[in-house]
Amino acid sequence: MNEDIRIHSWPCSYYLDTSKQWVAGRLLLTPVAIRFTADKTGELLVNFHLSSISEIKKESSNLIFSSLTILEKNTKHWFSSLQPNRNVVFNILQHFWREQLLSSQGAGAEAAALQSTKGKELTGLLTGSQKRLEDTAKVLHYQGEQFDNIMRGLNKIEGDMDVADRLLTELESPSWWPFSSKLWKTLLETKPKETATVSDSKNQEGIIIRIPVIITHRTDSNVKPGKLTVFASGLEISDCNSQVVHRFESKDVDDIRVHTPYEISVRQRFIGKPDTSYRLLSAKMPEAIPILEMQFSKKIQFLEDALGFVGARKSPQVDLGTSIWQAATGLLGGVVQPSSPVGGREGMDNDQGQLQKQEKISQEEAEELKQILKKLKGLALETEAELERQDEALDSITTSVDRATLNIDKQNRRIKKLT
């Protein structure tokens, strides 16, 4: 992810300690840093990593009553005249600061980036691919449960059709037919048992992903922390106390706009009344966007600032396709036998020779990559088998619906004759 992406910026004033005066400018938040640029001179007065922050507080002074202070190592930075208001800036900065500290990159993000090896890079790519495939498997599993519920419903419909067919047969029978009262009594006794069985078959859906977010409702200037939970059947927005703020079923979502890799908006349109719209900002949003794209492929829209994010994810280095699989397995083949060059052939130019030196990884990393590839292969086979099963189930559902439609038409004609 590009560390220079602008997540948010706010007009404000910064107290410059060297000249003992307030300087007007803009406070800028990136995924890993905070910066302040003066309006008049364009000079960058503040630039430090989020991991170097030890405290963010709302404070006041004798001169400026509404200020925000950031303690960075042993330096205290004062910001005031924050727009739209101090609470908005505080909530967003605190969210990204905490998530940065909780992330695996943490305080050593810069050092880790310098020391990363090809093995660690490839491990990260394959681990991300494994996570996306696991999320896909969860969605398919839920869809499979939905198909099973549909099949159970169709089986019950067929049972009800059989009952209706017997009732119609009795009504069509002559008045002297001797088994009518017994048939009615049997039907009344068996009917409630079927209803009870169906009512107990409801299954609870699973959570695909849950991330902390900063919530903005419509165009309100106030924001509040909360959580975004993605189910296979929709989205749920809740506050920090786990109280549901709003739930979108999949059919209710009209569009999802990706403003940046860290900010999206979800909207449901209405006729004659205002739309229901929520804007969600999160340091973990890059993990949720691929899942949302998979579930709402026809409703999601990437705006200009997010197009680079789409391109990066769909590049050969990130995509879960044959290119990664072949590259990973080829690289592992070279690692298992370090004495032999990676893909070495006569005629290899100097650039390829340099790449060969860079791509040698340790035996431990090779074993870890093998395990990940093994899991990926297993997940791929399970996903393929589930897709085949769902394809067969869909064919069965189509056949059952066609048969039920014919039976209903047939019984309607019989009822018309009776009336």
TrEMBL record:
Keyword terms: Coiled coil, Cytoplasm, Membrane, Repeat
Entry similarity comment: Belongs to the SVAP1 family.
Example GO biological process: synaptic vesicle priming
Signal peptide: none
UniProt-recorded name of the protein: Synaptosomal-associated protein 47
Main location: cytoplasm
GO cellular component: endomembrane system; perinuclear region of cytoplasm; plasma membrane; presynapse; SNARE complex
Gene3D superfamilies reported in the protein's UniProt record: 1.20.5.110, Pleckstrin-homology domain (PH domain)/Phosphotyrosine-binding domain (PTB)
Record GO terms (molecular function): SNAP receptor activity; syntaxin binding
InterPro entries: PH-like_dom_sf, T_SNARE_dom
SMART domains: t_SNARE (SM00397)
UniProt entry tagged with the keyword Membrane: yes
Subcellular location: Cytoplasm, Perinuclear region; Endomembrane system
Keyword Oxidoreductase: no
Region entry Disordered, spans: 338-361
Domain T-SNARE coiled-coil homology: 356-418
